[in-house]
Amino acid sequence: MIAGARIAAAIEVLEDIDARRRPAADALKDWGLAHRFAGSKDRSAIGSLVFDALRRRASSAFVMGEAGPRAVILGALRLVRGLSLEEASALFSGEAHAPAPMSEKERERFATASLEGAPAHVAGDFPAWLEASFAAVFADRLIAETSALAERAPVDVRVNTLKCSRDKALLSLAHLNAAVTPLSPLGLRLPLTPEGRNPALAAEPDYVKGRVEVQDEGSQLAAMLAAAKPGEQVLDLCAGAGGKTLALAALMQNKGQIYASDSDGRRLMPIYARLERAGARNVQVRAPRRGGRMALPISWGPVISW
Asked: Is 30 annotated as a binding residue?
């Protein structure tokens, strides 16, 4: 698909979301099923446009003077993607499935896009009813902080110290523009591609061989704050897919025991492959038995419930 056709598809998906009051993920899935010719890169690019527009819907509508799908896509292309009027006009050409050309009003609004005079909840893209609570926390940084919350997050990974050091992983992932995380001493941050896509981490040897695991910096810090030490017995009561369990195993240097459980046994399904990939040998997975009981040791170190 040409770039203009992707724009038109994103507008179509937003129209479906508005008309049927449905989740964006469902609308994108149905669009993909109805347009089998679209490749994975096309679907990813369309999804990125849709979510950019939804995250910045209020500010995009403000700068364009309208709140419809076409307007918020135009606003997002200006505010999020930083396109010039010439670049946007080329996408809205009306040719080969591209959207109809921009009107004079759209061109004027796009060229002069500004959030000057916008209410705080519009400039920061957050619900108006949260303004008092956010203002109490962020004070004069209200718009800066809430605007940051509306941005698409980069990908954070945790270096698995059972297999690798952060310095080695940083060097190995340099081609993905990896940088160290500001707070976690075990984290690396991978920026989005210029097209707004996540980096192709799943095919990287460091990921395949378990030297890094996808985990946001906040979760890395939560695991570290548990302060689990080698040789202790730890219960991860809400282990889920095992992200923090793996972090604890590395912090404990594979010594002691971690009992990983979850009230919903189905959430534990991915943990087995992740444990093997990471080389974590001090974890026992305990799915809940009938009645919600588990056979567990009596003496504990930390009990972790996320």
From this structure: no
